[in-house]
Amino acid sequence: MPWNSQGGGGPWGSGGNNGGGQNPWGQRPSGGGGGGGNTPPDFDEMIRKSQERLKRLFPGGGGYKGFVLIGIAIIGLWLLTGFYRVQPGEQGVTLMFGKWVGTTGPGLNYFLPAPIGEVIKPNVERTNQIEIGYRGNGTVGSGGTRDVPEESLMLTGDQNIIDIDYVVQWRISDAGSYLFNVRDPENTIKLAAESAIREVIGKTNLEEALTVGRVRVEEQTRVLLQAIMDGYESGVFIAEVKMQKVDPPRDVIDAFNDVQRARQDRDRSQNEALAYRNDIIPRAKGEAERTILQARAYKDRVTKEAQGEAERFTSIYNSYLTAQDVTTRRLYLETMQEILSKSDKVIIDQKSQGNGVVPYLPLPEIEKRANAGGNK
């Protein structure tokens, strides 16, 4: 009949368990070995084939031992990923389940790999810089900077306002403390630096901060800022605090310059007065010392002359007691000699004929006049 399939069967073509036959519901017979159809996977067959592959990979055994060897290999490869290198200038901060457990130096090191362990390697030799009072990549005063008055304006010790722009240079000294003891290290350094410099400026006069006291202010601010950061155990080293611009506020700078010029004029007048004083006082002291020395010399001379006169009088008196006539005559002659040597002399001879005047040539007077004329 036309509906009979090859090999017999009923009208639905279900002619027994022959190869390729199907029942009316489109299902393969349970014992059929033909191809085609939606056959479910055979897990036993898959396991058997996997075991055969393992036996080929591991001739000495398979099954459970193979899985163990594979697990050991995977664990070994995972453990090898725990080696890490810390470059010069870095510190390795080791974390176990996110907790800081240690710090390592430069070189090849080992720690448990992720996800158990983690290593952070910050650079501890790079010098970082924080700008306070201004913002910009250029130097202070250039067109690329912007002033921040809420950071730069502060009060001095003599109740004046000063405008200071400065930078703080810092490095990491302890990477673990830097990463885990302070939440925002850079902002903490900035705020602590503002507090430190305001404290130092609050004890410094305006003129000193503008001129000779700048180096002292920088050093005191650095020391105070370092003490604050050490108190936080921040692991930060403050390398330098450098003031870039120190001026009075922009609104009063003209009046401040007038005051500065007046102070300069005052200092100039003081310096001139000091120079005059330094010139006149030594001369006056020298004159006074010379007068004192002259008075002392006069006193000594007069004293010595008086002593000599007294001794001479005593000597004459003793000679008079010894030979009165001779001493009297000698005193008379010496006295007359002294008197007549200073007076004009006219010699009269009473025995001569005529008027008795004897011609006299005044040689001593002529000599004196000649000497006087030569000195003119």
Task: Provide an overview of this structure.
This protein has 376 residues and is of the alpha+beta class. Among the domains are: 60-120, no CATH class; 128-250, Band 7 domain (Tetrahydropterin Synthase, Chain A); 256-324. Helix content is 48%, strand content 16%. The protein is built from ten helices and eleven strands. The chain has helices at 43-57, 64-80, 149-152, 175-180, 185-201, 206-210, 214-231, 253-322, 324-340, 363-375, and strands at residues 83-86, 92-96, 99-104, 107-110, 117-120, 128-132, 134-135, 146-147, 153-155, 161-172, 236-247. The strands form four sheets. Strands 6, 9, 10 and 11 form a four-stranded antiparallel β-sheet that branches. A hairpin with a 2-residue loop joins strand 2 (92-96) and strand 3. The chain starts with 42 loop residues before the first helix and ends with a helix. Mean pLDDT is 77; it is low at 1-37. Residues 1-38 have a biased composition (Gly residues). It is found in: Membrane. HflC and HflK may interact to form a multimeric complex. Residues 1-44 are annotated as: Disordered. Residues 81-260 form the Band domain.
Q: Which architecture of one domain per CATH?
A: 2-Layer Sandwich
The largest pleated sheet is described as: 4 strands, antiparallel
Spans where pLDDT lies below 50 across 5 or more residues: 1-37
Q: What percentage of amino acids are in beta strands? A: 15-25%
Count of extended strands = 11
- And the CATH topology of one domain? Tetrahydropterin Synthase, Chain A
List keywords for this structure.
376 residues, alpha+beta, Tetrahydropterin Synthase, Chain A, 4-stranded antiparallel β-sheet, 3-stranded antiparallel β-sheet, 10 helices, disordered N terminus, protease, transmembrane, Membrane_HflK_N
